[in-house]
Amino acid sequence: MTMLSSAPGGASVRGPAAPSPSATTTKRRTQGGTVLALPALAWYLIFMVGPLVAIFVIAVLHWPGMLQPVSFAGTGNVRAVLDDPVFWDAARNTAVQLAVALPLMIIGAYMLGYYVAQKPPGHRVLRYLLFIPGLISTPAKAMVFYAVLSPDGLLNGALDTVGLGSMTDAWLASPSTALASLIVLDVWSGIGFTAVLFAARLGSVPDEIGEAAQLDGAGHWRAMWRIHFPVIRDFVGVVTMLQFLWTLFGSAQNVLLLTQGGPGSSSTTLSFLVYQKAFIAADLGYSQTVGVVLFLVGLAGLLTIRRVFRQNY
Hints:
Blueprint: E1 2-6, E2 12-16, H1 21-58, E3 61-62, E4 71-72, H2 76-82, H3 85-117, H4 123-135, H5 138-149, H6 154-161, H7 178-202, H8 207-215, H9 220-231, H10 233-258, H11 270-280, H12 284-308
Antiparallel strand pairs: 1-2, 3-4
């Protein structure tokens, strides 16, 4: 934008115009926003990108403990991991855990959330009850499950009481039931919290949609899956991603507290194997090689979930 000014002799000279107040204000806001974002960006680079890069660096090193000398291992750690039968047991257990726990948790939580969103009698109390497992610390949850599933625990006592003593078992110490017990703990821990999230999202769906479905003769089952589910499909995808990551990376704590990966390697998962090799076996190179595998599995899983739910972000 230019302005006309008078020169000596009456001639007009065209010069640059002063910037408009709105443009100046916008520029200052942009600069201010950039300055405010710098601490968060530095935090992200140091504590998020930094550890991610460190995983790939340590995966090519032979590092037998924190205070031990480090040497370059190349692909040696990869060969050690692929030749280790414990790794393949952990990969199989992780796949079973995800294939069983994730669908049960998401489908069950969605159905519970839909029920709560219909505001039945006592729905406020029910919301609090569903949220309780999310308020209990992981060691406390493990203690509760140990009290239920130990050889002299509540479950075996109940089976003896009803005359089913032949079905009693050492649930956490049996190769056939240890992993299943951990999956039950994962589902119980996550389904209530996830149901509350679904109920909150379903509560924001316009009432006219449900009323129109009822006028068309749709029952609750059809309204749940054919009417409301497509409306919150993107939100279901986000929650599925979060639960996928929590199950994939967070299972180590339950394994550590209840089974220690045993008996044998029947309940060892990939995330627990990372911990075991790093802090018990003091083999950091092997540990972070498994960590790279976990990262790739997590990335592939997120992309798959995003594709399944056709999310646009």
